[in-house]
Amino acid sequence: MPKKLLTIIISAGIIILGTVSYFLFFNGGNGGQNSQNDEGFFSSFFPESSDKESAGGGGGEENFGLEQAETQTPSGVLSQISDKAVVAPVFNPSTQKIQYFDKATGRLFETETNGKNKNQLTINTIPEIFEAFWSFDLKNAVLRYPENSNGFETLKTFLITNLATSTEGVFLPTGVSAVSFSPAESKIFYLSDNDTSHGIIANTENQNRKEIINLPFKQGLVEWPQSDVITALTRPTALAEGYFYKINPKTGALSKIIDGKGLTAVYSKKGEKTLYSLLDGENEIATRIYDNKDKTTITLGIKTFPEKCLFSKNSEDIIYCAVPDFLAAGDYPEAWYKGLVSFSDSLWQLDVKTGAAKLILKNTGLDIINIFTDASEEVFFFQNKKDGVLWRVELSK
Q: Cα–Cα distances in Å, from 157 out to 6, 148, 211?
């Protein structure tokens, strides 16, 4: 081989090797997402955890063939369940019925899954409740509503201990910003905001209270998806980095799962996956799945929010997502939370493992939230965020 050609080949090899080394060293092989060493502002408040987790790279992108699947005939039949705004609708497996609170009165109703035979379960009025949380056995609930006293409006958080009357219960302290029930025990976890946010576990009568953690941020969002996992999310905003943490309810140990600008996230009930969205460099939504076990991340080829999705009970590789037909760049998610923007969604079934997509509903004109199913997972229910009305979708045979 000529000496000149040999020199060119060696030089090219050195350049390629140097480029690869630079990428691995400065980017950690993470595709540009925050690495585990880049903990952000809040990390200075927390000691390093031995079980620290952090979502790795953006990974490959799954587009699910949505454009091709748009030609499918939608497999769902849509019908309206309620004629008024409801709060916290849920399927009750013991009665095989839907139950919900009426937003205007706070009274509890139940109905057949087709919306027929509506029955009022309570008579007491709690005006204008804006959110509610159920215990996993549906025997307890927390209602949140504003109350005006001497010209000052305060936010009340009422823990119901007897759903038969909806008045037996206790008020949680003023300043409670978030509540969630344990999936395994008769306990609750809530954040009580003062100078900081105190994470407290108590029984379902707010007795035997124990503070397990003190967080350096207020107005967080919490869930208790598994007996040994509580999640805490900083208030989502397009203006700052958000952080999604896992808390051990026994020890109070804290570990970060994900961070990102405009972050909102949901930890699955089986604990296999975390579904989240954040803003990319151009202020556009990126939706991703993080494998909690393998510590790998896939960027999905859809643009939506976790609040518009549901993990299948049968397999967490299957998710059902309402996807906006058009979602421009913007200050998400708070622009959507505040109602400054709303969407018309199509409803999809997505297989994260295979990339397959199935169209359930197309161009609904509805801004879909709070998706849940019956026991068979063949009938879906959701609310229209624009007016709080409850809808039903039955999969065609």
A: 77, 14, 18
Q: Quick one: pLDDT at residue 63?
A: 62
Tokens 């215990």, residue?
135
Burial 83-101 (b: 16+ CB within 10 A, else e): eebbbbbbbeeeeebbbbb
Q: Are 391 and 80 in contact (CB under 8 A)?
A: yes
- Are the CB atoms for 304 and 285 separated by under 8 Å? yes
Higher-scoring residue by pLDDT: 28, 340: 340
Angle value at C-alpha 70, between 67 and 74, nearest 5 degrees: 155
**14: which residues sit within 8 A by CB, 6+ positions away?**
none
Tokens of 219: 């107005």
Best CA proximity match to 159, nearest among 98, 145, 219, 280: 145
Closest C-alpha to 285, from 316, 268, 310, 306: 306
Give phi and psi for 162, each to the nearest 5.
-140, 100
Angle made by CA atoms 89, 95, 99, in degrees to the nearest 5: 20
pLDDT of residue 19: 43
User: How many angstroms separate the Cα of 315 from the Cα of each of 271, 324, 349, 359, 371?
Assistant: 12, 24, 12, 18, 16
Distances (CA, A) of 45 to 41, 222, 282: 8, 19, 30
147 three-state secondary structure: strand
Q: Where does residue 52 rank: exposed (0-12), middle (13-18), buried (19+ CB within 10 A)? A: middle
Q: What is the secondary structure of 225-270 as a DSSP string?
A: EETTEEEEEPPP-TTSEEEEEEE-TTT--EEEEEEEET-EEEE-TT
* pLDDT tens per residue across span 363-385: 999 999 999 999 999 999 999 99
Cβ count within 10 A of residue 38: 12
Inter-residue contact 108 to 163 (CB < 8 Å): yes
Q: Are 209 and 201 in contact (CB under 8 A)?
A: yes
Farthest-apart Cα atoms in the chain, separation: 95
Nearest to 280 by CA among 35, 32, 41, 64: 32
- Please, is 247 exposed, middle or buried when counting C-beta atoms within 10 Å of its C-beta (0-12, 13-18, 19+)? buried
> d(Cα 301, Cα 296) in Å, to the nearest integer?
16
**67: enclosing H helix or E strand:** helix 66-69
**Among candidate residues 305, 303, 140, 137, the one with its CA nearest the CA of residue 233:** 305
